[in-house]
Write a sequence for this structure.
């Protein structure tokens, strides 16, 4: 952890002070097959941002589990979608959760959206040695409410593995199934009726589940979402008032309707 | 000079007197365990009396703002390091006060060449049920008392505090609603801070109601609510009088 990147009042600076660096680089043998998690995406809909992910984690050609939660509530106004190596991604989520809450409680004000976006970029940059070794690669998506906008508005950001951050205009996707997802979202945004940005919650949820089901037909690492077998996505909605979870039961109801 | 035992005792007694004098005009803070959560209340200048510490923990205090701030930061640091290195479920008020804040305060109070902390504190931990709610009454010298459930009061002097606490318990009987409880806490706050009797000739309810409203004019009633039934890990919500319909 580089001390030059620390800011006063930040939880990471407290960890550095206590010599509790959250991420460490370990060497591994070449035969090691790492667990990976895909596919996640986020798009703007009429009421905010919908973020969803499939449920599958793989290691090589082995399906490790079909019950992973890839959409993580960081705090009441931020969501993280993880694609890549779960071990690193979940640790990044934990650092962000503690860091944002620590800042809010200690400084008596929430961290600004630009600072939240950069906090994740910093974790990705600190993960650079593992990324360069081809292990521990994480390519997340982030959604947060911009409180400086009037009225406050949820925004979507995507990253490259080195930590570059980009704001998404309409949507973003990451992971091995993201090609399919991006193509459909692009098509729908250009020619669809309604466009994703005009969809109401029910329409957006139905669309999101179908996106994942379609992606799983072309990508073996995407799975665990199949309405026919009553398995649904991990899905959350970010509105200017905060985070809401769309449960499996709710997805089922919406798809039935 | 201070190596002589009686001099040290004298110095400590002088410090008690000094701290007591400094805290005399402090505005009391109060807490109550209710079926739906824990209510913490104080009257100050906004973000000066009642604070969130961690997911299920809150602090209310009176005294020097800089000292309250130091204690608050120490408690938040300790809670977050504990939660990060272990788990949020491992953060407990008993350990936070017993092994962290109390020894620090005691040590600081007895170091007679350094300035003592000018604080009186009330800390709360939300339990799964009201009977598991835990309050710590922490004093400037590091001593503390614990209480499960019920209602508590922290004031600058022990006699009005004891009288206020006794009355508060009786007055809160049968009041499970957050607004009703806040009204009782504010009446108690007014009686204790204005030196009104809480035994014998207690001011009438109408006088108490008008009293706290008049005394709170131009100040901020700071209300912290630890919600028992909340899906999010962070249970603390800052509330206003209008949120409670007062």
């Amino acid at each position: 952890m580089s001390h030059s990147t620390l800011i006063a009042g930040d939880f990471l600076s407290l960890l550095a002070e206590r010599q509790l660096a959250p991420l460490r680089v370990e060497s591994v043998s070449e035969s090691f097959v790492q667990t990976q998690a895909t596919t996640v995406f986020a798009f703007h809909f009429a009421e905010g941002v919908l973020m969803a992910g499939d449920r599958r984690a793989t290691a090589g050609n082995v399906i490790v589990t079909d019950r992973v939660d890839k959409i993580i509530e960081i705090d009441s106004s931020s969501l993280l979608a993880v694609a890549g190596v779960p071990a690193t991604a979940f640790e990044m989520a934990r650092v962000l959760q503690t860091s944002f809450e620590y800042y809010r409680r200690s400084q008596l004000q929430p961290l600004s959206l630009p600072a939240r976006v950069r906090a994740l970029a910093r974790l990705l940059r600190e993960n650079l040695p593992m990324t360069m070794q081809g292990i521990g690669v994480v390519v997340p998506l982030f959604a947060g409410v911009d409180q400086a906008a009037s009225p406050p508005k949820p925004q979507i950001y995507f990253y490259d593995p080195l930590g570059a951050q980009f704001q998404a205009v309409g949507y973003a996707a990451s992971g091995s199934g993201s090609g399919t997802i991006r193509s459909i979202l692009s098509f729908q945004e250009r020619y669809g009726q309604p466009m994703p940005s005009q969809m109401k919650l029910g329409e957006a949820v139905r669309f999101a589940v179908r996106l994942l089901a379609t992606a799983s037909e072309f990508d073996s690492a995407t799975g665990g979402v199949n309405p026919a077998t009553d398995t649904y996505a991990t899905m959350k909605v970010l509105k200017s008032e905060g985070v809401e979870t769309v449960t499996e039961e709710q997805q089922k109801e919406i798809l039935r309707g | 000079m201070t190596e002589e035992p009686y001099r040290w005792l004298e110095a400590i007694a002088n410090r008690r007197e000094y701290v007591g004098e400094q805290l005399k005009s402090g505005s009391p803070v109060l807490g109550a365990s209710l079926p739906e959560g824990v209510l913490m209340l104080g009257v100050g200048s906004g973000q000066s009396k009642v604070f969130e510490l961690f997911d299920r923990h809150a602090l209310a205090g009176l005294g020097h703002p800089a000292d309250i701030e130091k204690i608050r930061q120490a408690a938040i640091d300790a809670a977050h390091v504990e939660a990060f290195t272990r788990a949020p479920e491992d953060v407990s008020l008993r350990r936070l006060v017993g092994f962290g804040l109390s020894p620090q305060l005691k040590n600081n109070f007895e170091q007679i060449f350094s300035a003592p902390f000018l604080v009186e504190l009330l800390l709360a931990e939300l339990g799964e049920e009201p009977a598991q709610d835990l309050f710590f009454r922490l004093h400037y010298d590091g001593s503390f008392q614990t209480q499960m459930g019920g209602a508590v009061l922290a004031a600058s002097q022990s006699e009005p505090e004891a009288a206020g606490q006794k009355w508060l318990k009786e007055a809160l009987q049968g009041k499970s609603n957050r607004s009703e409880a806040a009204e009782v806490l504010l009446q108690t706050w007014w009686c204790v801070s204005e030196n009104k009797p809480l035994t014998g000739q207690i001011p009438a309810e109408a006088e108490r109601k008008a009293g706290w409203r008049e005394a709170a004019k131009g100040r901020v009633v700071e209300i912290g609510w630890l919600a028992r039934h909340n899906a999010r890990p962070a249970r603390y919500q800052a509330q206003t009088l209008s949120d409670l319909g007062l």
User: Anything to note?
Assistant: DSSP finds six helices and ten strands in chain B. The first helix of chain B runs from residue 5 to 23.
